[in-house]
Amino acid sequence: MLSFVTKNLNDIIYLALLLSSVAIGPYYRSLKSIETKKWVGSWLGILLILIVSGYNAIHPILSAVLGILAIKLVTVKYCHIVSFFFMFGYLFFFRLANKFGLPLPSGQTNLIEMILVLRIVGVAFEINGSWLAMKKAKKKENELDNSKDAEMIQKDDEFLELINPSLLDLFHYSFNYVGLLTGPYYRYRTFDDYFHLPYSKYADCMGFTINTLKTVPLYISLYLALSNLWPLEYVLSEDHNNRSFIYRMLYPWALFTAFRQRIYSGMTLAESVCTSAGLGAYPVEGQNRTGHGPTVGYMKIKKMTDEEAKIAQYDFNTVESMDVWGCETVVTLRDSMKVWNKAVQYWVAMVVYKRFPIKPLKIHAALFVSVIWHGIHAGYFFCIYFCPFYLMAEDIYYKLYYKPATGLKKNIIGFIMWFLRSHSESYQAAAFLLLTFDRIWIYYSSMYHYWYGVWFTFLVLGLILNQIYGRPKRLQVEEEKKLESKNK
């Protein structure tokens, strides 16, 4: 027992801090004064940083303060670019601290630094994006016809009002304890709404928290059991290499299953910190999306009276990080990427994918930023940056066979695609967990790098099949559309 505690001491402390943050939530939510609430949240956040990081707390605190100052000192036109390069530059320095004669910070401090990067860069892009949107809206104010007005009512634009927080508000947003340890990422708009809108008073925060927490013991138990039965280091041993190829091929399934349970437990606890504090509660009529918040009728919801707020139905979709059932059951890798760590996916889409100026390189820019945000190890590149190559093949088979299929045939094809998707993720996750190039090369060499050969074969075969069967189908669809237009 003692050896187990010693071995997992950092994780136990981190788990205790997350549970403490959940317990604090109802008391924090009950604070009446907005200013008191902001300061208490910030001091709790700084206290968490000090407990987790010790002397290394200087890194997250210093980088956040300098990032905030950069946002306020640089013109709104360029503040997002300056904050992006500064925060990621500091992240590199932080992770290479030992090269500069400084102690290397712990993995838990690294997680806090990663969250601060998301918050500070994210709010800078919100400030710039809202400024651009308001500037554009003024130019087109008199040009919008009724049909466009109707369309805008159906779905909100990304920015509906100017976002321009003060220096102090940026400080509070950066250091608030809710979501600081493991996430999830939420916009500054969500943070500001939490203090000025009444939703957290009327949402069933404890009901949502209990419902979210009830699966955590299962995730932790599965993680402990699987990681002990199938340890990571075993894949580098001679004993592993002497096993049958089928055993070695399926071993990453156990590794990735254990890893998923660890992520599920951490993300679920992080969501519970938000729900217990009431942050991220919005009326369901807003069709709320992870990271973003309400996507429909935000300005109307914002004007909701206390009486209306009392009888409204609420959800916490805004701070939902993981769709666990989706992660386990979706058929394609493309869909799996959408339900995994959804808050970070939203940040990457908002900050990188949508704003990157060169269209053909958008996906590569998004993946590259995702890789360097996770870390500088080769394993992140092997795991994340190879996804598009699998997606190229997967998309072909999905359109040719899965999409048009029905009934039992669709179920069988769906199972095959699910198995291949799961196996691909497990193979890539092995690199993510092994981290360094030498360890990855040892393991992949013991497997003859077989999965890359399978990918390439699937892709080439898919391209051939698409030429044979896909082109006639496209021509048939085009002909049908032409006939429909003529009949009309």
UniProtKB/TrEMBL annotation:
Instruction: Please state the pathway this protein functions in, per its UniProt record.
Output: Lipid metabolism; phospholipid metabolism; Phospholipid metabolism
Q: How does it sit in the membrane?
A: Multi-pass membrane protein
The record's subcellular locations are: Membrane
Which Pfam families is this protein grouped with?
A: MBOAT
Q: Which InterPro entries does the annotation name?
A: LPLAT_7/PORCN-like (IPR049941), MBOAT_fam (IPR004299)
Task: Identify the keywords attached in UniProt to this record, alphabetized.
Answer: Acyltransferase, Membrane, Transferase, Transmembrane, Transmembrane helix
A GO molecular function held by the record: acyltransferase activity
TM regions (residue ranges): 12-28, 40-71, 78-96, 116-134, 365-392, 450-469
Which family is it part of? Answer: Belongs to the membrane-bound acyltransferase family.
Q: What is this protein called?
A: Lysophospholipid acyltransferase 7
- Source organism: Galleria mellonella
Q: Which gene encodes it?
A: LOC113516435
